[in-house]
Write a structure and sequence with these properties.
With about 425 residues, the protein is α+β, with helices and mostly antiparallel strands. It folds into two domains: about 90 residues, Nucleic acid-binding proteins (OB fold (Dihydrolipoamide Acetyltransferase, E2P)); about 300 residues, Bira Bifunctional Protein, Domain 2 (BirA Bifunctional Protein, domain 2, 2-Layer Sandwich), CATH 3.30.930.10. It is elongated, with a radius of gyration of 27 Å.
């Protein structure tokens, strides 16, 4: 491609350049026209003097509609009076590559004056906002950093099937489909296959891919199709090893985003990224409930898990006392956890939740790898072991102690950027009432 991105224009002063982008603004004055062109990296001013020689260019610019796309050739000039980095292009040729309708469905540059549902209906326009471009550049860095960390620490990447015969979690929360006359479902999680990799001797694996949850949840932090980072590691001495690893992964990824775009994020979003030098405190579930009772006089009717308000209050306490945006809560009751979580001598799970700025972003645990105990725990959850016989096979021929976690990437990014809704941190959102675009 021989065109130049706006961010690189400083290298080409007094030279002929070609840029391509959207028409961001047109100012048609008595003696001059100013055309602002925007690409994914920035904006530049095009200046056309109204002379006889430029009449064709003048007529073309006069007919341009906002958000049309153009290719422009011209000489790049240094001009201190120009607000856009003191640069302007004096065009020799303007080619219109597409024409936009005069009336946009909404003013995408004014997020606060537009209904979210309208913006989601026209997400392709909403994404043109500069802050959205910055956000998805940061999301790219974040996901790349996760993968970078795993590869640097000798993890293998796997790609598990997304069409499954059985659900990894609750069978009531799956999207069912016809698979050549047999009933199948879209995968909620690669959980079973991550554990199969442990039985295969892979030691450390990760996967970044989609998962599907048929939850009829109309909250600000749920979606029916999500992008997950899933991890499983062998030869652990306890679930604390999994917590240590996850904390290191997240801090690495957040630091990569901070190093690349930290100043821009603070200027654009008014958010100072998490201080990763602070170690996340750890409480047992019982201790966390007692903190909520003592500090906030709050007692939930839910005895085996947290309500949403409790997550927020606990994070508030941790931020004030420890200056940490993260907090681990461990040892949840078995009634609130899947059958494959290992239990301690008291019957509590060797598991944890990681809360981040008031929202749970991860459930992790040491997995039960002994088939006789797995069968027993299945029965306690009213699951027929014969229905998951393929899964139990993984553990019959030797399997090391192992554990892992799953991380919803859009939810983490929502919290990093302090968005009020996961819809803003998802490229195209899927929820119970949204199947388009």
């Amino acid at each position: 491609m021989n065109h130049i991105f706006v961010k690189d224009l400083e290298k080409y002063k007094e030279k002929e350049v070609e840029i391509k982008g959207f028409v961001d603004k047109v100012r048609d004055l008595q003696y001059v026209q100013f055309l602002i062109v925007r690409d994914s990296t920035g904006k530049v001013q095009i200046t056309i003097e109204k002379t006889v020689e430029n009449q064709n260019l003048v007529d073309l610019v006069s007919s341009l509609t906002i958000e049309s796309t153009v290719t422009i050739k011209g000489i790049l000039k240094e001009s201190p009076s120009v607000k856009l980095r003191g640069l302007e292009i004096i065009p020799t040729k303007i080619h219109v590559t597409s024409i936009s309708d005069k009336e946009l469905p909404f003013d995408y540059k004014s997020k606060d004056n537009s209904l979210r549902e309208t913006r989601l209906d026209y997400r392709f326009i909403d994404l043109r906002r500069e802050e959205n471009h910055l956000f998805f550049k940061c999301a790219t860095i974040f996901e790349h950093a996760l993968r970078e960390y795993f590869i640097n620490h000798d993890f293998m990447e796997i790609h598990s099937p997304k069409i499954s015969a059985k659900a990894a979690e609750s069978g009531a929360e799956v999207f069912k489909l016809d698979y050549f006359g047999r009933e199948a479902c879209l995968s909620q999680s690669p959980q079973f296959y991550k554990q199969m990799a442990m039985a295969s001797g892979f030691d450390q694996v990760f996967e970044i891919g989609p998962a599907f949850r048929a939850e009829n949840s109309h909250t600000s932090y749920h979606a029916t199709e999500i992008n997950m980072a899933d991890v499983e590691v062998s030869w652990i001495d306890g679930f604390e090893d999994v917590m240590d690893m996850e904390e290191a992964v997240l801090k690495y990824a957040i630091d990569r985003v901070k190093d690349t775009y930290g100043e821009k994020i603070e200027k654009t979003f008014g958010v100072k990224l998490t201080d990763t030098s602070v170690k996340a405190p750890r409480f047992t579930f019982k201790e966390a409930k007692e903190i909520l009772k003592q500090q906030f006089h709050y007692t939930s009717e839910r005895e085996d898990d947290f309500e949403r308000k409790e997550e927020m209050l606990l994070c508030k306490y941790v931020k004030e006392k420890y200056n940490s945006d993260f907090v681990f809560v461990t040892k949840f009751p078995f009634s609130a956890r899947p059958f494959y979580h290992m239990l301690d001598e008291e019957g509590l799970t060797e598991s944890y939740d990681l809360l981040f700025k008031g929202v749970e972003i991860t459930t992790g645990s040491q997995r039960e790898h002994r088939p006789d105990i797995l069968k027993k725990q299945m029965e306690e959850k009213n699951i027929n072991p014969e229905d998951l016989s393929f899964y139990l096979e993984f553990f019959k021929y030797g399997c090391p102690p192992h554990g892992g976690f799953g991380l919803g990437i859009a939810r983490v990014l929502m919290q990093i950027f302090e968005f009020d809704n996961i819809r803003e941190s998802t490229f195209i959102y899927r929820g119970p009432n949204r199947l388009n675009p």
